[in-house]
Write a structure and sequence with these properties.
By secondary structure, the chain is α/β, with parallel strands linked by helices. It contains 7 helices and 12 strands.
Length: 227
C-alpha cells in the first residue's frame, strides 16, 4: 500500500481472486516442474492482460453498439498489437514473452536481452551478454518481460538498452513481472519514473542472497526444470 501511494501513476498491482490459489502452487517448494509451469502460465495470462491494458497507446474511450442497442458506457478498446514489441530478459522472461505472444498473435516484434547476475559479487551485479532489438522498436509500445523484480539490477540494465540504444520512450514501457519487492520497485522507478510496473504481488524484502522473501525461489530454474 505504501508503494502504491509513493508511485500512484507508475505501479499497478494486478488484482484477481484467482491469484491466491495459483500462487499457493508456484510458491510451494514441493511443486514439480509440470505443475509449476501449468499454474504459472495460468497466472501470467491474467497478469499480461493487465499489462496490455496499461500500455499508453490504447485508443480513447468510445461508445459501442451491441446487438441489442448502444451502450450507456464508453469503452477503451485494446491496444493495436501491430504497435507493440515484447522484450524478454532471457531466460525467465521467455515464459512471460510466450504468454504475450499467445494473447497477441499480431505482435509487431520481439526483442531479446541476455543478462545474468554475477553470483560472486555481493550485490549480485547484472552482466549484459547479448541484446537484439527490432529496428523499429522506438516507434512502439514495449512490454518488458521478467517474472521477478528483485534488486532491479537486471531490469535497469535492460531499460538502459531499450532507452539509450533502442530509443524507446520510457513512458511507453510497461515492465511486467509476477513478483517484486520494495527494493526493486524503488530502484526501477527512481531511475525511470515514466516507466509503468505491472506486478501480481509485492513481497516484503530481499534476503542476504538477494532473493525475494518469501518469494518462490528461482523462477527460471523452476519453470524450465533446471532447479
Amino acid at each position: 500500500t505504501e508503494l502504491i501511494e509513493f508511485y500512484p501513476d507508475n505501479l499497478i498491482i494486478s488484482k484477481s481472486p484467482a491469484y491466491e490459489g495459483l500462487f499457493s502452487v508456484i510458491r510451494d517448494k514441493n511443486t514439480q516442474t509440470p505443475s509449476f509451469v501449468h499454474h504459472a502460465d495460468r497466472l501470467m495470462r491474467i497478469l499480461v492482460e493487465d499489462a496490455l491494458a496499461a500500455l499508453s497507446s490504447r485508443p480513447p474511450a468510445a461508445s459501442v453498439e451491441t446487438p441489442c442497442g448502444p451502450t450507456a458506457q464508453n469503452f477503451r478498446r485494446p491496444v493495436d498489437p501491430g504497435i507493440v514489441t515484447a522484450v524478454s530478459i532471457i531466460r525467465a522472461g521467455d515464459s512471460l514473452l510466450e504468454v504475450v505472444r499467445g494473447i497477441l498473435p499480431g505482435l509487431a516484434s520481439v526483442g531479446k536481452i541476455l543478462i545474468q547476475r554475477d553470483e560472486n559479487s555481493s550485490q549480485k551485479n547484472a552482466v549484459v551478454y547479448y541484446d537484439k532489438l527490432p529496428p523499429t522498436i522506438s516507434k512502439n509500445d514495449v512490454i518488458l518481460c521478467d517474472p521477478m523484480l528483485a534488486t532491479g539490477g537486471s531490469s535497469l540494465a535492460a531499460l538502459d538498452i531499450l532507452v539509450k540504444k533502442g530509443g524507446v520512450d520510457p513512458g511507453r514501457i510497461v515492465f511486467c513481472n509476477v513478483l517484486t519487492c520494495p527494493e526493486g520497485v524503488h530502484a526501477v522507478l527512481k531511475a525511470y519514473p515514466a516507466v509503468t510496473i505491472v506486478t501480481a504481488q509485492i513481497d516484503p524484502y530481499l534476503n542476504e542472497q538477494k532473493f525475494i522473501v518469501p518469494g518462490l525461489g528461482d523462477f527460471g530454474c523452476r519453470y524450465f526444470g533446471t532447479a
